[in-house]
Amino acid sequence: AQSVAQPEDQVNVAEGNPLTVKCTYSVSGNPYLFWYVQYPNRGLQFLLKYITGDNLVKGSYGFEAEFNKSQTSFHLKKPSALVSDSALYFCAVRGFMIYNQGGKLIFGQGTELSVKP
Amino acid sequence: DVKVTQSSRYLVKRTGEKVFLECVQDMDHENMFWYRQDPGLGLRLIYFSYDVKMKEKGDIPEGYSVSREKKERFSLILESASTNQTSMYLCASSFRGRSGYTFGSGTRLTVV
Fold first, then answer.
1. Chain A residues with CB inside 8 Å of B40's CB?
2. DSSP helix/strand/coil, A84
3. Any idea what the Cα angle at residue A37 is, between residues B99 and A90, rounded to 5°?
4. Which of A47, A100, A101 to mutate to test the interface with B (most CBs of B within 10 A)?
5. CB-based contact, B42 to chain A, within 8 Å
6. φ, ψ for residue B102 (rounded to 5)?
7. Cβ separation of B100 and A105 shorter than 8 Å?
8. What is the structure's pLDDT at A97?
């Protein structure tokens, strides 16, 4: 079965420190991996994706993520956290796609990131 | 800028009412999705559609139906609203293939 796990419900970081939000996945075939961010009472916004190529993917707002095939992980990182990064973060994977039926993303449960001044 | 537009940000309805949540996208996407989001439960897929007039049940379709008469519009229908359908509803769309989703801003529905 295809699945995504975000093992931490909440991550607390001091402003200026590096941050990591963890994600592991289980999927048939080569995964397409995504990170989204959600601010309060809003929809999800796309941050970055991994389809193929370089294992380190750079995205919006200074975020990056590292794809590790052997560990089936796709952790989100940022070298220096900002208070404005505080939000809910979702990891998602798109695995096997039935032809002509598009493809569904499977989402993790979300991780609440809190950055304190 | 590409957009997915949900007709209402906040909605309050009474138990037993028929409720329509509308979603329109301007990106010519084939796929459209309806999710509900509840604290501690993440995003749960209600229904999705990969083409006009096509629909597929997601993980929690009970109590809901959908309509996709035109490519750009995907409607979620609560046939008889109940209090346990109080939730944040998110619409999303995507191209077929490798792309991710574009989400709407969400509709926070309260059923009283």
1. 109
2. helix
3. 75
4. A101
5. yes
6. -110, 125
7. yes
8. 57
pLDDT at B97 over 80: no
- pLDDT tens digits, one per residue of A69-86: 999 999 999 999 999 999
User: To which residue do tokens 């769309």 refer?
Assistant: B93
Q: Which of A23-37, A80-94, B5-19, B71-85 has the lowest mean pLDDT?
A: A23-37
Up-side HSE of residue A34: CA atoms within 13 Å toward CB? 21
What Cα–Cα distance (Å) separates residue A95 from each residue in A10, A12, A101, B13?
26, 31, 13, 37
Say whether residue B4 is in contact with chain A using an 8 A CB cutoff. Answer: yes
Nearest CA in chain A to B87: A41
Amino acid at A14: A
Write out pLDDT tens, residues B12-29.
Answer: 999 999 999 999 999 899
> For residues A97 and A3, is the Cβ–Cβ distance under 8 A?
no
Taking the C-alpha atoms of residue A24 and residue A7, their distance in angstroms, rounded to an integer, is 8
Of the candidates A43, A92, A102, which has its C-beta nearest B90's C-beta? A43
Write down the mean pLDDT value for chain A: 90
A48-52, A96-100, B42-46: segment of lowest average pLDDT = A96-100
Using a CB–CB cutoff of 8 Å, tell me whether B47 touches chain A: no
Task: Single out the residue of A88, A64, A89, A81 nearest to residue A116, CA to CA.
Answer: A81
Contact status of B103 with chain A (Cβ, < 8 Å): yes
Distance from CA of A6 to the nearest CA of B (A): 11
